[in-house]
Amino acid sequence: MANIEARGAGWRLKWRLGGRRDGAAQSLTFLPPPGDDPAATYQDVLAAKAIVEARLHGMTREQLRRALWGDTDAARPLGIPTFGEWVRMWETDRRKTGDVQKDTLDRYVQVLNQRAMPMLEHLHLTEITQETIRDWVAFMREKQRAHRTAKNPDGRPLSPQTVRRAHAILHQCLSQAVPRYLPANPAARVGGSSRHAVGLPKVTVHEAVFLEPWEIDRVLSNCPDRIRDLAFTLVRTGLRLGEAVVLRREDVVLTGKKPHIKVRRALKPDGEIGPPKTAKSRREVTISPELVEVLNARATGKASGALLFPAPHAGKVRRKGDPPARDVWEPNNLRMRYWLPAVAAAQRCEAHPPPTPDKPARGPVRKLRVDEVSTCTCGGRLTRTPRIHDLRHTHVSLLVEAGWLPKRVQLRVGHASFKITMDVYGHLWDLGDDDRLSAMERLLATSADEDA
Fold first, then answer.
1. What is the pLDDT of residues 329-376, one digit of tens each?
2. How far apart are CA 177 and CA 179, in angstroms?
3. In the chain, is it the N or the C terminus that has fewer CB atoms within a 10 Å radius of its CB?
4. What is the mean pLDDT of the chain?
């Protein structure tokens, strides 16, 4: 059902396409001309409401405009684009300037199309207020779903990270409309406040796993041959997985005074190979003699453009000049088929293995799943479940323990800013808190003696 609400000196007609609760939100504002009778304008609103309901809410705002006035441009408020039009303008401009990497911009546009367009597409930019943003955030949290499958067609609610990521992208998109079309960004915090007033959900930050040396050895010893050298390289360089799997023979310098890896490329989420994540990610990472030995064995006899860590699966060629995609690891395949089984094997105790699966009536006994591990308290068994990315975290923790300064760590791992390094790893450095606490206790003790 279409609804009418007061809007300043006029009225706004609101409905959803198809009359569905999850249909794209539509609205049209009616303002009485100066000196005109407001009652006449309200009759126009009632007539528009009747048209929308007669067509079972199956018309957009632009279609309603054409039905009422014919010339939609005449009804457009001062030439302000709709949100859908603005997103296309913003995307075109970003592609021309090249200030956002192609794969990143593709992902931004995809998120806007999936999350924002259903509710905001037909609103003019000037009609998007903080209240609109609040309603949109609530719509994402309550109505939108992700990970729909045949077994779970309804999917599951969006995670807090997904909601906040969509809001951040919308904020970035609308900020480019200021001041050309908007006096201020409606998705921004108000008045310099440290908190958003649009109901963004709180995010539980994933706690990084910093492996001990014996845990590293335990995991590596259980890695299959296909990924052992790759894992060995990740924990000794702090490279991102997407940077390591596309390393070529020409990207490593194994001789001279400073053997190093030149990070010049990365595997993108869409499977393409492109530049690293940020400008700071383009770097040279020095390597130890132990890693030189491992990489030299993999590089010997290979052409300059050959991958050091090729994958065992097939695929199609992606781009001229790059190795065939069948040679590049698909990260999720690596994780599910090789990494998680290796971690599970490291979590199993030889003296107390998990129960053997029952033998079926026909066929062989299935292999143990990655969640079927030992539960004993024996020493030497891995009790944590690290991600592949935790090898990067572990590398940084080892650098800190070895006395590396924060700025050197930032440059080595390729963080875009020093703040990121300190936000993620700042707690690892000894900043003299123990000495300061001892000094505080001595002051308290001195004060107590004087009072006595």
1. 999 999 999 999 999 999 999 999 999 998 888 888 889 999 999 999
2. 6
3. C
4. 87
Let me know: does 245 contact 311? Beta carbons within 8 Å.
yes
Other C-beta atoms closer than 10 Å to the C-beta of 211 total 21
Q: Which of 335, 340, 337, 327 has the alpha carbon at shortest distance from 245?
A: 327
pLDDT confidence of residue 432: 67
Specify whether the CB–CB gap between 229 and 298 falls below 8 A. yes
Q: Which two tokens stand for residue 297?
A: 């064995």
Lowest-pLDDT range of 120-129, 340-349, 408-417: 120-129
- Cα–Cα dist 399/238, whole Å: 10
Sorted by sequence, the CB contacts under 8 Å of residue 288 that are 6+ apart come out as 236
* Other beta carbons less than 10 A from residue 229's beta carbon: 18
Instruction: Please tell me the distance from the alpha carbon of residue 378 to that of residue 349, in angstroms, as a whole number.
Output: 7
Please work out, in degrees rounded to the nearest 5, the angle formed at the alpha carbon of residue 260 by the alpha carbons of 254 and 263. 125
Neighbours of 279 (CB within 10 A): 10
CB atoms closer than 10 angstroms to residue 30: 18
Element (H, E) at 7: strand 3-7
Query: Across 41-45, 148-152, 332-336, 448-452, which has the greatest mean pLDDT?
Result: 332-336
Amino acid at site 202: K
Question: Do 23 and 17 form a contact (C-beta atoms < 8 A)?
Answer: yes
Q: How far is CA 127 from CA 117, 228, 269, 367, in A?
A: 14, 56, 34, 58
Q: Which residue has the tokens 């908007």?
A: 182
Residue 74 clears pLDDT 50, i.e. is over it: no
Which uninterrupted H or E stretch holds 341?
helix 340-346
* Whether 117 contacts 22, CB under 8 Å: no
> What span, in angstroms and rounded, lies between the C-alpha atoms of 400 and 195?
33
Measured distance CA(87)–CA(60) in Å, rounded: 18
Tell me how far CA of residue 447 lies from CA of 158, 374, 385, in angstroms: 55, 54, 48
Instruction: Give dist(CA 141, CA 110) in Å, integer.
Output: 18
Most distant CA atoms of the chain, gap in Å: 91
Name the pTM for this structure: 0.71
- Residue 237 contacts residue 404 (beta carbons within 8 Å): no
Q: Six-digit token pair at 71?
A: 């010339």
